[in-house]
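User: Show me a protein chain along with its predicted structure.
Assistant: Here is one chain, sequence first, then structure tokens.
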Amino acid sequence: MKILLKNATLLPEYGFAGRRVSVLVRDRKIAGVTEQPPPTPADEVIDCGGDLLIPAFYNAHCHAAMTLFRGYGEDLPLQRWLEEKIFPAEERLNFRNVYHASMLAIAEMLRVGIASFSDMYMFEDAVAEAVLASGIKANLSRSLVSFDPEGDIAKEPRMTEAVRLAEWYHGCDDGRILVDFSLHAEYTNVPRACAYVAEVASRFRTGMQIHLSETEKEHRECLARRGQTPTAFFRDTGVLDCPTCAAHGVWLTDEDIAILAEKKASVAHNPVSNLKLGSGVMPLGRLLDAGVNVALGTDGAASNNRLDILRELQAAALIHKGVNRDTSQAPARTLFGLATRGGALAQRRPDCGRVEPGFRADLVLLDRNALHNIPCYDEYAMLAYSAEAADVRMTMVDGRILYRNGEYTSIDEERVRAEFRAALAHDFA
């Protein structure tokens, strides 16, 4: 299958400033980027009309099925939000409602230009089936907890689920699904279990997803309990020896950042969720200065309400300038890299996140002629300060158009809405 995207505008970094280009997609990959359309015929030709063609976004931290809890338990700090509202509600989760909630989340993400998401939750086989049905990409992980220092997590049902997920789905559909292992957090796990999970992840050659130093309370209590930070704890238990994506990283010391850099871990920045829960603001500049790969994530819809990486990019572009009282912080071009290439690398997808031959065709076409985007002196600034998710005209994943001009090609939107509402009424009424 060949698709030709002609009359497209690329970002300045690709070297075609002021010129229209043609991008040829063959099967899953970008086959060519040229000023003149290639002579070989394509199965479909799309005239981009001068709109901006960019790499798709990658959501580096998400709990997709938490669309079930959007708007539930508002205006509470993290621990009360979890213990009083979320944990009790999660007791009602099952394969059916997680599947339908994940389909709703996937539809939302495709509409705003997200090609892939990293998920950490339960009933991940249901999420995997939603991913396969919809055409999106994902890194999936079954969240693990352990509280008994003498317990054997290898015999726990959650661990059995995590291993089965890796055996059944890792590498599915030419790598469209990748499986990670996941330790929920330092405060929900014991050292023995962490070491075991790290060993299993190494054996499967997968990545690791963790929550890390999200709140001051978490960070300080770890210091009091263990005499070390959560980052040092995960280093000493071998977790960071796996390719790790650590979500949040709000409360990090300079030593923590040095550890993350040394271990080549990625950190998922979730500015909207962290602000809404009153957790604080990640030290983005210090992480980038240390050479840590940083990506952007939405967290779940329960703590964010929306699954929109462009919104995260724009929140980050503003908050770091304000907090540091420095307009040079979080420049637009840097943040765009976090939302695209940084997220792809955090997901261990080295052939994603660029509009170049040989890379996967994860592409977004964005309306640069919307009233709020005119004039455009700097495309990166447009993305960081004026563009809206509604400007997304097309989302392509692995060379397949999944969303275009308000319509889905792989999802029946009304059916997704109806089935989600039915699951919500049946299990959460």
